[in-house]
Amino acid sequence: MCVTVHIMQVKHDLFSSDHHVDITLKDNKGRTALSYACEKGNFEMAESLLFNGADINEALYWTSKAGHVDFIETLIAKGADVNGKTENGETPLMAAVSGGHQEVMKRLIDFGADVNEADSKGKKVLNFATKPKIIDYLSRAIHLTSSKDEARKPIEYHATPEHASTIKTYKVDKKHIGKALIVNIKHYYAKIKDRKGSEKDVNMMVTLFNSLTFEVIVKPSNFRATKDETMKILKDFAEASNHVNKSMCVVCIMGHGGNGYLHTTEGGEIDLEEIYGMFAADQCPTLAGKPKIFIIQTCRGSESQIGVYESDSSQDLHMPMTAACAHFAIIYATIPNKKAYRNCTEGSFLIQSINKVFKDNASKLKFTKMLMLVSEDVDKTEIELIKHGRITKDEKQTCCIEYRGFYKDIFFGNVHDKNHP
Question: For 224-264, what is the HEC assignment?
Fold first, then answer.
């Protein structure tokens, strides 16, 4: 009766504009309405209390103690700490074990509950168990955790700064680092708009890759190319014989596009997979086993993301066998089906970010780490758009990085220092 009155009073206050809700109110047993609601399975009441600021970790504890599996997943999804503790140092797992709820116990462990945890008196999870099945399951879980910890130690040891990294790096010859092809299609016919200001992107990429000692090639010279012309530019670059003496290659493609294809000047479409296939080891053996970096500055659809910018619709050939399509790193300006943005005076967001991050960090950070910084920089870019005569800032751009068999890293290092590791 006491419990019912306690819950009903809080519920009345919760939905009454005449009362201030004291969700921390405790009864003579030191329990809140939330604890009773979770214990009794009154999840509607529990949700209301949580909405008004009740402790979600307290909810998880009492839900676990009562054995309500479904609501446990809801609470964890909302941010409850699976290893959160009560004033006595008890965790939800201890509550489930003491209540004999094996299914709840298993679910909590799946979500990362610590089977070796102890309460404030030093009582461990296993000590809360009374049922033989639960004791057996916990004992095996504890043994498995210990085995994993032991197996993990050598990996953690080798990954520390004092020891060599387990991630290999591609061989980079500073004198012959590689060739960079920049393809910029600015001019379009029919209903496709020209890409005003795209020269800014070209200039940034030329300056950047020149500073990294790449041999830079810009095509087409007049910034317009049909499908056949574009394919010939790419094929000629892929088949260049002097890749054999280079460490890698970069292909930067800028234009209008869609999800998986590039628009050419006359309105033609080129499947990006067809382009990547030109550089696969079976088609381009001079680049087999070497990193191939693609930067794709195009839209991948017409949808906006929910931020005035215009939108862009000498190495031995007898090396060990490698997958034909391995060693590719592809950087897309945006995620599938979404737009990519360009400032007509400053340049495209992705190109600006790559230029800034690589210029500042190429001498000290590895390639994959720099791509993380590029991704962060693009994400933080503020997009101003004019909609219905008003400036809005409600759209965002997310770059997309795809690795295909790219299992080593690249360190450009100080390109002027031949002795840099």
Answer: CCCHHHHHHHHHHHHCCHHHHHCCEEEEEEECCEECCEEEC
- Rounded CA-CA distance 408/289 in Å is 10
Number of CB atoms found within 10 A of residue 18's CB = 6
State the DSSP string of 357-418.
Answer: HHHHHTTTS-HHHHHHHHHHHHHH----EEETTEEE---B---EEEEES--SB-----TT-T
**What's the rounded Cα separation, in Å, for the pair 279 and 235?**
9
Beta-bridge partner residues of 270:
262
Residue 182: its pLDDT value, please?
97
Cα 416 vs. chain centroid, distance in angstroms? 33
The edge-to-edge listing of strands for the beta sheet with 248-254 is 215-219, 178-184, 248-254, 292-297, 328-332, 400-404
The answer to whether the beta carbons of residues 362 and 412 sit under 8 Å apart is yes
For residue 389, what pLDDT is reported? 57
What is the pTM assigned to this prediction? 0.55
Q: What does the pLDDT read at residue 119? A: 92
Distance CA 365, CA 370 (A): 6
Structural domains in the chain, sorted by start: 2-159 (1.25.40.20), 174-404 (3.40.50.1460)
**Which segments of the chain have a pLDDT < 70?**
1-21, 144-166, 190, 305-322, 383-394, 414-421
Q: Which one, of 102, 41, 101, lies nearest residue 74 by Cα?
A: 41
Rounded distance, CA 92 to CA 213, Å?
58
Please report, as a single letter, which amino acid is at residue 378. Answer: V
Name which of 237, 240, 239, 233 is nearest 270 in CA terms: 233
What 3-state DSSP class applies to 46?
helix
